[in-house]
């Protein structure tokens, strides 16, 4: 029989990509600690996440990060929180990098085996949605009205889910109602920033520079960002795109706009200024995202502003169309790109106009963290939905039905 301490405390562990994270959350609503060791500066040298380096860093960080999460939880609780006080350990099962996921999973399995505590497997994407729900209940707001339309938009994912709670144990169910057929929105931000000689990850750089440009200077036509559809109405097969189900789908495509930016760079002879900017940034790592405007001519700032305007517009249009068509009663936007200021402003304004409640995570919980994993595990703990001892990493794990 597994030990349950009845404290409501779950230790969450997240290692799906380039952040090693651990957090202690009480009853799915109160984060006592939330520790994230970011590998961003390591991968920045390569302009993207290097899987082997990520695994090695997770191995180095996992023990100190968990220790720090337990110690900060003790400080927040006002008494020493020990492993024995935990009701369960939750870990990200996927999607993500296989080697990176394995570090968190192996550690969590060893810990729960040693402590005789339940292990809970959490889908990373479900975690992003619960980051928002957790913070809403932390602020003692009324629960978000169901069904929720959730846009999870990050470096690896751009998905729309219709989320509901069902059954006696209020289990969460998800229906995938849209996804990117090629690049994720964050991936487009990162690739365009790299192309323009800006830093990594690209989202925060573009976010900081876009307000200095004219968002209407460069027109990215809708055909450049909408998914290609064959004559019979189907989308072209793509290994990143999951099979389609019945019912309306609200898909995205971000590879076209990336190519359009490249074309603009070539036709407007921006190469030399890009190389100069890249050299200046690598010579002086203290240059901040805001300072980078001094390294950009107006044409580049206009291009950046227009790119962001088009991407956010596309995310907004598809999300609102899905919410309307599927009768969603509220909207949640989560994942790294949800940190974007223009995205927040435009989504909030449009949701207000339509009288639809909308919620975003705090900036700290927009990007990868473990509090969201512990929060998503809470309903699973109540439902005794535990992982088996042979839990493995599932790099392509999907969330919900399609
Ligand atoms: O959720 P996350 O930390 O990791 C993944 O699961 O991918 O998201 C990282 C992504 C990166 O592509 C990054 O460029 C993007 O989120 N991002 C942003 C902003 N902050 C992070 N994109 C646009 N604006 C931002 N402020
Ligand atoms: Zn993520």
Give the CATH architecture of the largest domain.
2-Layer Sandwich
The overall average pLDDT, rounded, is: 92
Q: What structural class results from the helix and strand content? A: alpha/beta
Q: Please tally the helical runs, counting DSSP H or I stretches of 4 or more residues.
A: 13
Q: In the CATH hierarchy, what is the class of the largest domain?
A: Alpha Beta
Give a structural overview.
The chain has 402 residues and is of the alpha/beta class. It folds into two domains: 9-143 and 365-382, 2-Layer Sandwich (Nucleotidyltransferase, domain 5), CATH 3.30.420.40; 178-356, Nucleotidyltransferase, domain 5 (2-Layer Sandwich). The chain is 43% helix and 16% strand. It is built from 13 helices and ten strands. The strands form two sheets. A five-stranded mixed beta sheet has the order 3-2-1-4-5, with helices on both faces. A five-stranded mixed beta sheet has the order 8-7-6-9-10, with helices on both faces. The radius of gyration is 21 Å and the shape is globular. The mean pLDDT is 92.
Characteristic key phrases:
single chain; 402 residues; alpha/beta; Nucleotidyltransferase, domain 5; 2 domains; 5-stranded mixed β-sheet; binds 5'-O-[(R)-(carboxyoxy)(hydroxy)phosphoryl]adenosine; binds zinc ion
């Amino acid at each position: 029989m597994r030990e349950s301490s009845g404290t409501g405390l779950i230790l969450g562990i997240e290692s799906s990509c380039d952040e090693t994270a651990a957090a202690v959350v009480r009853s799915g609503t109160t984060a006592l600690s939330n520790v994230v060791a970011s590998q961003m500066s390591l991968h920045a040298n390569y302009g993207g996440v290097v899987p082997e380096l990520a695994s090695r860093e997770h191995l180095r960080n996992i023990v100190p990060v968990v220790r720090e999460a337990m110690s900060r939880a003790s400080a927040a609780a006002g008494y020493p929180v020990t492993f024995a006080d935990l009701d369960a350990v939750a870990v990200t099962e996927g999607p993500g990098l296989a080697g990176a996921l394995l570090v968190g999973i192996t550690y969590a399995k060893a810990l729960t085996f040693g402590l005789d505590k339940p292990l809970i497997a959490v889908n990373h994407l479900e975690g992003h949605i619960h980051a928002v729900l957790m913070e809403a209940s932390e602020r003692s707001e009324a629960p978000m009205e169901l069904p929720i339309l959730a846009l999870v938009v990050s470096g690896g994912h751009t998905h729309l889910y219709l989320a509901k709670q069902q059954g006696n144990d209020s289990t969460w169910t998800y229906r995938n109602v849209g996804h990117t057929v090629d690049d994720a929105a964050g991936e487009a931000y990162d690739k365009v920033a790299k192309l323009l000689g800006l830093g990594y990850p690209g989202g925060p750089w573009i976010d900081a520079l876009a307000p200095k440009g004219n968002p209407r200077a460069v027109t990215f036509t809708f055909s450049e960002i909408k998914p290609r559809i064959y004559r019979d109405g189907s989308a072209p097969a793509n290994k990143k795109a999951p099979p389609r189900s019945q019912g309306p789908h609200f898909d995205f495509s971000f590879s076209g706009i990336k190519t359009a930016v490249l074309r603009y760079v070539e036709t407007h002879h921006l190469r030399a200024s890009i190389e100069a900017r890249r050299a200046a940034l690598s010579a002086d790592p203290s240059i901040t995202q805001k300072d980078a405007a001094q390294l950009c001519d107006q044409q580049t700032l206009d291009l950046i502003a227009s790119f962001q305007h088009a991407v956010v517009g596309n995310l907004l249009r598809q999300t609102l169309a899905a919410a309307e068509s599927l009768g969603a009663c509220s909207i949640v936007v989560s994942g790294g790109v949800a940190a974007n200021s223009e995205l927040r402003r435009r989504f909030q304004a449009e949701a207000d106009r339509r009288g639809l409640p909308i919620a975003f995570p705090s900036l700290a919980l927009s990007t990868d963290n473990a509090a969201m994993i512990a929060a998503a595990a809470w309903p699973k703990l109540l439902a005794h939905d535990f992982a088996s001892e042979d839990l493995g990493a599932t790099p392509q794990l999907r969330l919900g039905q399609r």
